[in-house]
Every structure is written in structure tokens, then in C-alpha cells.
Give the backbone structure.
Amino acid sequence: MIVHKYEELDSTNDYLRRKLDLQDYECVIAENQTKGKGKRGNIWVSSKGAALFSFSVPNDKDEFLEKVTIFTGYIVREVIKKYIDEENQKYLTFKWPNDIYYKNRKICGILCEVIRNHIIVGVGINVNNTDFGIYKDIAISLLEITGKKHNVDTIISQITDLFIAKENRINIEWEQILQNINKFNYLKNKIIKKKFDGVVDETEYEFVRIDRKGQLTLLGDKMNEVSFVSLDFVVL
Ligand code: BTN
């Protein structure tokens, strides 16, 4: 993997987007971002001590696009959990569609974007940072969980190495990955309400599973199952 490192960038995803000669498996790491991007146009508060990186992956496998965010979440969780005591690893969960939580707080966000014939996988992990700006009440870092600092570059290379090692077997191992993602799932046993344009709908849904296509399946009040490719929601 080719690695570029910067003290500051606007967004590591946008850096790779602008690169016209983008190769397969190029990784860019920034110590800080001035315009970190999250899903749905949200900002990603970026500060020193966090792992802020993006890498390019060829978009050449069947159904890769619908699986890649969940796959990345699985890989990130596998790496981060090793830094946490075994008895507390169960608190590290995947929150559909693109977050990793520790208990009720977010430790990682993932933003995958299609750029020409590549997928850009963008990952932000709160590692040694403790200033989360507007997200101060809902974020947490590895430093806060473990009480010690960790090497950011090591964590990034462990994630990209594991991603590349497992990527070719994604379709063969998909059922196992899904089982893992469903087992360590933030939404398990939680009640959800849909949200449209900031307005919360009255109907309550129960989490059922993440399905083969990476969609969120919920159980409605009439015991009907409904699946969503994308959904804005609140957790009760
Ligand atoms: C989200 O939580 O909505 C996704 C956040 C993704 C943040 C990372 S930080 C590195 C990369 N560059 C960006 O601008 N965004 C991603």
C-alpha cells in the first residue's frame, strides 16, 4: 500500500477524490482535517490524536459496494477490540449503517464513496483525542476506554492490512461476517423510530437483523418486516 501522510488536510476522502492518477490501495493519513466529512453531509469533528485516514480499493467484485461499509466496520471492530480488555469487548458494537460504538458512545465513523473505478474507504477513529466538539456527549475515544495512549499509525496499518487480507474472501465469508455483525450489534433489542427531514415518525420498530445485502430489517407494529437500504432514525 502506498501511504501519504499530512499534518493537515481538508478531508482525506476528498484528497483521494481529487487525485486523478489514483492507484489501487493508496492510503492517505491526516493528523488533522479542516473539513472532515460524515454521512448525510454531517461534519466529522477531527482533532489531533484521532486516526483519520482513507484508502482506495478497486471496485471490481460482485456486490462489493453494498457490502463494503459493513465489511469495513467488521474489520475496524476486529482490530480495535484487541486493545480493549476481553470482558469489555462485548460493549464494542456495530451501529448500522456505518458506526462503531462503545456502550452508548461513538468511537468510529466510516464513509465509503465511489470515485470513478474505485471505492474510497474513509475511517475516523477516536484514538488518543478527547475533544469531540459538538459531539462531546455522544463520542468516546480508545484513550478514555483503556486509560492509555495508543500508536495511531499502528492501528491504521493493522486495519488496512486486515482489510486487504480478507477482502478477496468477502463473498465466501459473508455469512460469518454478517453473523458477527448481527451478534455485536448496537441496535439489538432496541426500539427505533424513523426520522424524515428531522421529524420523528410515531411508529415504533424493533431491530431484527442486518440482511445479506447490508440492509436494515425492522419489525413494525403489525409484526411486518421491512428492510431499508438507507434510513435516518432515532434509537429510544
Ligand atoms: C460518519 O460518522 O458519518 C462518517 C465519518 C467518517 C469520517 C472519516 S475521517 C477520515 C475520512 N475523511 C473524511 O472526510 N471523512 C472520513
